[in-house]
Amino acid sequence: MHWLSKALWSYMHPQKLMCRGLRKNPNRSSLDHGIDSSASAMRVTIPALQTPLTEEDLVLLALDKSLEVKDVKPKPKKKKNVPLKKLIQPEVNPPLTEPITAETQYERLAQVVTPLYQASYTTQLKMKTTKALEVLKTLSRRMTENRCLFEKDKKGLACHLEPVRPSPDILAYRNKDEFGIHYGVDGNPKTVGFFVGKPTDPLMTCVPATHLINVKESHKLIAQRFQTFIRQSTHEACLKFDLGGIWRNLLVRSTRSDERMATVYIHPQDLIEDEILEIMSDLEAFFFHGEGSDCQLDSLYLQACKNTRCSREQAPYRLIKGKEHILETLEGLSFSISPDSFFQINTGGAEELYRVVREVAEVSSLTTLLDVCCGTGAISIVMSPFVRGSVGIDVISAAVEDANKNAFANKISNTEFIAGKAEMVLPQLTEELSQCTDVVAIMNPARAGLKPEVIQAIKQCEAITKLMYITCKPEGMAMENFMQLASNKVKGSSKKKTVPFIPKYAVPIDMFPHTHHTELVVLFERAFL
Question: What's its EC (predicted)?
């Protein structure tokens, strides 16, 4: 905290009257651009595909040039309310009623992984705007029921909502893919791809990613070559831990400059060290000197893990050959990517996300950022030129190590990263933060959301005047976090009442084209502002 402690009195300053342009004139980007907010108006008729689409067909679809989407007349309103979960998050991987065949496998996989792939991108954005509207309507209803302090906008929402901001890239935008191993349509248990059906379903089938429009061709090639490798191997696939076999998963990552990293995950079973080394040697020979050399890997790792997931402390990542890291660029800054690094799945979308955070939070040279769940420090580092300084907190010490390395590599001196639980670290920063002018907290937690203890610690840190909550699943635990922020006391807490946060502005960002998901950014402000 050296930079935060220096000459604090020189920064003591009355609260700056920040520009409130976004919220004084919210209609500058209103939702009245021909978008029907009813859920039924967003339904579309999607014709079934009989054969896999060609690459040309997929491009035409993405550019709204092919397969017209037919409007369906709204159905009469039913007396019973449709559950929000079903309305905005339809089940795209239902139980299988018939086997997947060679003729249907690619279409069925596309329906699971990219369920909106036959809708024009304009229609997808309208559907996602409707989903965000439903989320904020639910938040408004719940806050009203709980007598929370907030201001409804003219549409009855908990705060003003912008239309969904589109992704800069809508084809092959994923920079990370995790491929599973299971039975394919040919009955071979060493098929590499994505699953159609659920693990408990006896008809679950693994289908190669051959025709998915959101996956890079380089990733598909690496998965295809890996399938060739394991089918030649004498070791079996690990379909269930107690049934033996070693081959489990393949993780592929890549960057804008097309650096490529692959990580092979195995279950070590009863293998001795020499046998693991032999597997690593075989992988090196195949991918760097043999049939897999056309994958042009820059980095190849192996992790031998006996659990569903292992941290690097539990099971180290072993570098087979190549670089320890690949480098990604974000707004002119470079970030080292490790096998287990957290990084937004859509790099261009991530840049748009951080621009939205900067714009809506109205940061300035007087702002101190509090980056909760900072991961490898991307938000703090990207925002560093626009703020006085930032403090990142993450419970995963390895992530904090990577964050410090990224800051050092980019010559960023006004950031500091702390490993620990946010509810334990925040009270230690309260006194110093109280002497700062404009403290903005940014939270980008996993889908499980934040624990009530973290929310309580944030609310008790009265120096925090604004809070940006980023979530890709706002209808899940994030909704509970929203309610906890808006309440003057966290449920089950013995702490004294705290000043709540009020939702003020929301912006959805399409980080995941052709799926139902979006990234939602919600600005909260202290009730006394």
Answer: 2.1.1.35
Alpha-carbon distance of 300 to 371, in angstroms, equals 32
CATH topology of domain 176-330: OB fold (Dihydrolipoamide Acetyltransferase, E2P) (2.40.50)
Q: Which of 238, 374, 461, 472 is catalytic?
A: 472
Q: Can you tell me which residue has the tokens 């929000």? A: 84
Closest CA to 402 of 419, 420, 424: 419
509 Cβ contact partners less than 8 Å away, ≥ 6 residues apart:
164, 165, 167, 349, 352, 353, 356, 518, 519, 520, 521
Per-residue confidence band for 141, with pLDDT thresholds at 50, 70 and 90: very high
Q: What's the confidence (pLDDT) of residue 311?
A: 85
Q: Which of 486, 464, 385, 476 is nearest to 146 (CA)?
A: 486
Q: Distance from CA of residue 497 to its chain's centroid?
A: 33
Q: Specify binding-site residues for S-adenosyl-L-methionine.
A: 344, 394, 444
Average pLDDT over residues 268-272: 95
CA distance 396 to 377: 12
Q: Rounded to whole angstroms, how far apart are CA atoms 514 and 121?
A: 8
Q: What is the CA radius of gyration of the chain?
A: 24
- Answer yes or no: 374 catalytic: no
Say yes or no to pLDDT of 10 above 60: no
Please say whether the structural domain 22-71+80-96+120-170+344-529 has been given the CATH code 3.40.50.150. Answer: yes
d(CA 360, CA 521): 9
How many other CB atoms sit within 10 Å of the CB of residue 500? 21
pTM of the model: 0.80
pLDDT higher than 90, residue 379 = yes
Instruction: Quick: pLDDT tens for 51-107.
Output: 444 445 544 444 443 333 334 444 444 434 444 444 344 555 677 888 999 999 999
Residue with tokens 């991530």: 350
Nearest CA among 423, 366, 414 for reference residue 393:
423
Binding residue positions: 344, 394, 444
- Contact of 508 with 111, CB cutoff 8 Å: no
Do the beta carbons of residue 410 and residue 436 sit within 8 Å? no
Domain boundaries, the chain: 22-71+80-96+120-170+344-529, 176-330
How does DSSP assign 338-406, residue by residue?
Answer: -TT----SBHHHHHHHHHHHHHHHT--TTEEEEEET-TTSHHHHHHGGGSSEEEEEES-HHHHHHHHHH
Reading the block at residue 114, the tokens are 């990219």
Express each pLDDT in 389-416 by its tens digit.
Answer: 999 999 888 889 999 999 999 999 999 9
The partner residues of 311 in beta bridges, in order of sequence, read none
